[in-house]
Amino acid sequence: MNPRKPNPAPSLKLIVYGMPLLFLLLTIASMFKHKPYTTTTTTLTSLRPHCNAPSSIISQLEPLIAEEPLDVWEGLGKEESHIRYLPSLTDLSRSRRFIYVDLGARDYDSSIGSWFAKQYPKQNRTFEIYAVEADASFHAQYRARRGVTLLPYAAWVRNETVVFGSRPIVVGSKVWRMRPFGRIEGEQAAADGMSAVVRVAAFDFVEWLTRNVAEEDFVVVKMDVEGTEIELVRDLVKRGAMCLIDELFMECHFDRYVKCCSGERINRFNFSYPQCYRLFKELRDMGSVVHQWW
Ligand SMILES: *[C@@H]1O[C@H](CO)[C@@H](O)[C@H](O)[C@H]1NC(C)=O
Ligand SMILES: *[C@@H]1O[C@H](CO)[C@@H](O)[C@H](O)[C@H]1NC(C)=O
Ligand SMILES: *[C@@H]1O[C@H](CO)[C@@H](O)[C@H](O)[C@H]1NC(C)=O
């Protein structure tokens, strides 16, 4: 050691070594403070080989949005105009039947009437339309509607009764109560006695799809199922039915930032935006024509 250079003062040493250590400790502490997102792997790639669409089609789709949108949620809006629909990239004339399945159909006008009937490019084909909706309050309006078959169930991975539940969202002194739709917080809500809960019939969507459509059919699916999409998509891939769907519009529900109300996340969904993004990317890498739906 050079005797003319004294050791750094202990306080300086503390700063040099202490700061990174403090930073590390704070990072670890914050990981415990914030509820970590589900660690369930979203990796589907191990289930290759996969689907139909060649990479020349996939590369022409609208790019996936990698950055989490932090603006106030307005539903399908400005993103819709960016969608590159499969029938605008390929010829449907070789398909046998044309089928549209709306999972989470709700009101006829919420997506079948307002979007699929009016905007989806159909190359003059008549599509058979299936409205999958478990909520009985929507069923009456489908009875008289020709060309639409109502399946009064929730889309699920097996036939059983499931709980739709919704606990109130509480941010500070504000409380938002919501109707129960989708399986979000279903079981917890059923247990706590304060939340809105309904029990609905759910059906095995893969089984239905496999029995009702074939490779030669052109099948479009919209999936807005309040978080269940993660399990449905895994099930479709695992049971080899994903490729029966030619074009999929999927809303991936993530833990959304609510600028309007609090600037906080509301912890309703345990998927983060980056996990949703990875799921879309994996599906496209596997040859699925999948779009982000909002
Ligand atoms: C669709 O049908 C209409 C009316 O029959 C016809 O005028 C039009 O050319 C058709 N378009 C295509 C893309 O086949
Ligand atoms: C599941 O439910 C659907 C719809 O009711 C029915 O068609 C199908 O046969 C059922 N599948 C099984 C395995 O019970
Ligand atoms: C969220 O967590 C619950 C319980 O751990 C799990 O059952 C559910 O599948 C998870 N949801 C997603 C989207 O991973």
TrEMBL record:
UniProt superkingdom? Eukaryota
Q: Which residues cross the membrane?
A: 12-32
Domain DUF7870 spans what residues?
A: 59-144, 198-294
- Which Pfam families would you find in this protein's record? DUF7870
What keywords are assigned to this protein? Membrane, Transmembrane, Transmembrane helix
Protein name (record): DUF7870 domain-containing protein
Origin species: Salvia splendens
